[in-house]
Amino acid sequence: MTRVLVVDDEPQLLRALRINLAARHYEVALAADGGSALRQAAQFHPDLVVLDLGLPDIDGVEVVHGLRGWTSVPIVVLSGRAGSQDKIDALDAGADDYVTKPFDIEELLARIRAVTRRSSSHEAQPTRIRVGGHEVDLVAKTISGDVRLTPTEWRMLELLLRNPGKLISQRQMLTEVWGASYARETHYLRQYMAQLRRKLEADPARPAHLITEPGMGYRFTP
């Protein structure tokens, strides 16, 4: 049974999530603030954390930092704040995905399933992945249809394909592909992503697999 720690200061939301998750055979622990969340994580050893960013005692991003100091447990953050900066900060701190309040429970459950699936299959990642009509071989670095990529395009594509369904923040992609000194050069991403879509997507103007989340980052949808 998958163990989920839910952290939120809204009692009604905590109760609703506990009922919905338990009905789907998750084992659920609850915390109403950041301090309790960190203590519960150490005692409960969850397989997944659902974490509200607007907590009364510790900012949710600081809770992410605290968890990442000792565990790689998947974290899905909840945010009701306007704008995207808090979600970007959480992703950069080590969160795996986010859902914006108010949300449909099925959307949250889909994100929970996706991050737990990625976590459980991490050790057995496929090396050949379909992107639309093309097969990408990550070991041989070849693409069917004689598609050729530049080294930078390969690094971007590999980062996305090795994390199917996961939102890769702009900062993470820039840092991993170009280096830390390029963390704010977001125009690089737009240029290279457009090139990848022209080479791999059936309709580059309406991509089905290499998805942009405006202001946040990119996601590979199998």
From TrEMBL:
Residues 119-222 form the OmpR/PhoB-type domain. Keywords: DNA-binding, Phosphoprotein. The modification 4-aspartylphosphate is found at D52. It comes from the Bacteria. Residues 119-222 bind DNA. SUPFAM superfamilies: C-terminal effector domain of the bipartite response regulators (SSF46894), CheY-like (SSF52172). The keyword Phosphoprotein applies. Residues 3-116 form the Response regulatory domain. The keyword Cell inner membrane does not apply. PANTHER family: KDP OPERON TRANSCRIPTIONAL REGULATORY PROTEIN KDPE, REGULATOR OF RPOS. This is Response regulator.
